[in-house]
Each structure stands twice: as structure tokens, then as C-alpha cells.
Specification:
Helix content: 40-55%
Order of helices and strands: HHHEHEEHEEH
Radius of gyration: 30 Å
Shape: elongated
Number of helices: 6
CATH class of the largest domain: Alpha Beta
Structural class: alpha+beta
């Protein structure tokens, strides 16, 4: 049968030399394929160094962002500002863990990526991906592509203080941290959210606060 098939091919081939070459092909010949080699996993020391540097970069960016957007003054009395801020955070899906209106302290938390949506989180990953790769890849090699920042592993905690401000107004300050749901022994803890996520979350909180204040005025 194999000979017959080759003969039919040769009957229509333009070159007898080509037919002779085809006749010499082994019956089981197949295109050669090579499986892509998986990157070797890093050592514990490499992983610790990479995550420690990433945490430091996130912390540095976080502190700069807080200086720019983490606090503001308002003409509203402290009680009104406190209530508006609490309402804004609740509307963003945050859950109150502790509140002290008299002392002006408020702590809220929720599973990440709140107060961001999943679509907003995808934008954060896209925006901060080059920063992460620039820190992780020189240490971890190609394995760095397998390191993911999964929001399901964390709870976002936001601490707010509302203190008396000038002219009977108020001064509001916000901080945020990530809390691991299941701590991983031997791995550096990641306390700080990605920089673009911090910016986006603060902008959403302040926008919500302004809506609540506008509602109070009406």
C-alpha cells in the first residue's frame, strides 16, 4: 500500500528526483517537536529576596501616595465628617471592624480587591505588572512570570482618623494595609497594596465622601 501511494504521488510530481527522495522517507517520520522547558523554581533565599524588594518598592510608593492623597481638611465639623466617611466606606463594600466617633477613629475591612471592583483590579495588575517584573525577574529569572498577586489571599484594612481641624472643621487621614487570610511561614509578608491600587482606592473613597457631604448639605 505504501508503495502504491508513493507511485501515485510520483505520477503527478514535477521532479523524478523529488519522488525518489519521497520514497526514502521512513513510514513513521513525523515533524520534530520539542516541549518548552519549565523554568527552574527559585531557592527560598531567592524568593525571600525578591519579595522583600517588591515589598519595599510598594512601601516606598505607598508612602509617597499617602503624602499626596491620604489626608484632607474639610469645613465640616468632626461628627459630620466622621459620619460621611463611614457611610462612604460602607457603600464601597467595606465592613466596620471598630469605630469610635468620640475619638475619631474608624477601622473597616473587606476581602480584596474591595474597595475596588474586579475590573479595576485587572487595571491595577496591568498597570503595575512592569514594576513587579522589573523587580522580580532579575532575581527569579523566567520563574517570575509565574508569580501572581491574587487578591483572594488578602483582606484590605483601612484605618481612618477624623480629628478637629481649623475653624471648627475637621482633618481626615486614611491608611491601608493588606492582611493575609492564611499566613505563609517563611515567606515575607506583603503588607502594602500595589501603588496604582492605592491611588485608585483613595480616589474612590474621597469621591464617595464628597457625595455623602453633598447629600448632607442638601
Amino acid at each position: 500500500m505504501r508503495a502504491a501511494r508513493i507511485a501515485m504521488l510520483c505520477a503527478t510530481a514535477a521532479s523524478i528526483a523529488a519522488c525518489q527522495q519521497m520514497a526514502q522517507w521512513p513510514a513513521e517520520a513525523k515533524p520534530a517537536t520539542t516541549a518548552a522547558a519549565k523554568p527552574a523554581p527559585p531557592t527560598s533565599a531567592q524568593m525571600n529576596e525578591a519579595l522583600t524588594r517588591l515589598n519595599q518598592a510598594f512601601q516606598d510608593a505607598y508612602e509617597r501616595i499617602l503624602d499626596e492623597r491620604g489626608s484632607r481638611s474639610d469645613a465640616a465639623p468632626r461628627a459630620g465628617a466622621f459620619n460621611a466617611l463611614e457611610s462612604a466606606l460602607r457603600r464601597l463594600g467595606m465592613i466596620v471592624e471598630s469605630r469610635d466617633p468620640d475619638g475619631g477613629t474608624l477601622t473597616v475591612a473587606a476581602p480584596a480587591p474591595r474597595p475596588l471592583t474586579l475590573d479595576e483590579w485587572r487595571k491595577v495588575v496591568e498597570t503595575d505588572g512592569p514594576l513587579m517584573a522589573g523587580i522580580l525577574c532579575p532575581i527569579l529569572g523566567e520563574y517570575c512570570r509565574q508569580v501572581r498577586f491574587n487578591p483572594d489571599d488578602y483582606v484590605i484594612v483601612i484605618n481612618a482618623t477624623v480629628l478637629p481641624g481649623p475653624a471648627s472643621g475637621s482633618r481626615i487621614s486614611l491608611t491601608t494595609r493588606m492582611r493575609e487570610i492564611v499566613p505563609r511561614p517563611g515567606v515575607p509578608r506583603r503588607d502594602y497594596p500595589p501603588p496604582s491600587g492605592v491611588r485608585m482606592a483613595l480616589d474612590k473613597i474621597w469621591a464617595g465622601y464628597e457625595r455623602e457631604r453633598a447629600s448632607d448639605k442638601r
